[in-house]
Design a protein that fits this description.
The chain is of the alpha/beta class. Helices cover about 35% and strands about 20% of the residues. It has a single domain, classed as Rossmann fold. The protein is built from 11 helices and 7 strands. β4, α5 and β5 form a beta-alpha-beta unit.
């Protein structure tokens, strides 16, 4: 048995981690793991804080894409939680690359751990330009590209790749739906390595904020939604203090970063 299978959440054995069945199981796991719930709550708080910082004077809907088993709406009731797959707890089904939303009707779009699942992000950016109001934007939280990330994400999921040297922004390891895999390094490719290309292709979209998220110790030890939690939950306060103490190491150890994209007003 491999290292990853050893720590895989038992309820997910034999389950397609990209399929519909995982959503209900992830909901059960999330309800029982306070450590990962706290990390996700910080993702939601960060997203809303950045929304208020950069899109505050814009009126319009706030949409969460790729929500899966998200609790975003539980904490921020006006956020519309959606996914490409239907589920009873979600508000709507929305394909990020072909959004069934009115032109210029949206203030903010939130993408938490879903951006790298978009097969062709150029279509997503075209849709942002269409549905966002001028001055509105998108908050992306996705895998980081530090030393730990590059090692960890390459080996966590057989269904996903992590290739910082991929020649393009599309899926990795194939060009058809059966063999292609999401590239967890996508946000690095688009917003860092190929930023000049992004600016040229989408001049009306500006990157206004880039930041590492420091809750990597709690995220890692929680096991996320797919793996076992490896520490008792009563250690959460101590883990927070440890993250503060190791803040200078975040560029090496961080697992996620946040990118804010805004639609220019002219």
């Amino acid at each position: 048995m491999s290292f990853t299978n050893l720590f895989l959440e038992p309820r997910l054995r034999g389950v397609d981690l990209q399929g519909y069945e995982r959503i209900g199981l992830h909901g059960e796991i999330l309800a029982q793991k306070p450590l990962i719930r706290e990390v996700f709550k910080e993702f939601y708080d960060t997203s809303i804080s950045l929304d208020r910082m950069y899109f505050d004077k814009v009126a319009g809907d706030r949409i969460e894409l790729g929500a899966g088993t998200s609790l975003f709406r539980k904490y921020y009731g006006d956020v519309i939680s959606t996914d490409v797959q239907p589920a009873p707890h979600l508000d709507a089904v929305i394909d990020a690359q072909d959004m069934n939303l009115r032109d210029e009707s949206v203030r903010a779009i939130f993408c938490i751990n879903c951006f790298h699942h978009f097969p062709d992000p150029r279509k997503f950016f075209d849709e942002l330009l269409r549905v966002l109001k001028a001055g509105g934007g998108c908050v992306v939280i996705d895998p980081y590209f530090g030393l730990l990330s590059r090692i960890l994400y390459k080996h966590l999921f057989s269904s996903e790749a992590y290739d910082c040297n991929a020649p393009d922004w599309n899926y990795c390891a194939g060009h058809d739906k059966k063999s292609a895999r999401p590239n967890q390094a996508l946000s690095y490719l688009v917003f860092f390595r190929d930023r000049a290309r992004f600016n040229t292709l989408f001049p009306r979209l500006e990157i206004v904020h880039l930041r590492i998220l420091p809750n990597y110790i709690r995220y890692l030890l929680s096991g996320g939604l797919n793996f076992r939690q490896v520490v008792p939950s009563f250690l959460i306060p101590l883990l927070r203090k440890l993250e503060v103490a190791l803040l200078r190491l975040a560029p090496i150890l961080a697992l996620h970063h946040v990118v804010v994209i805004r639609k220019r007003k002219s």
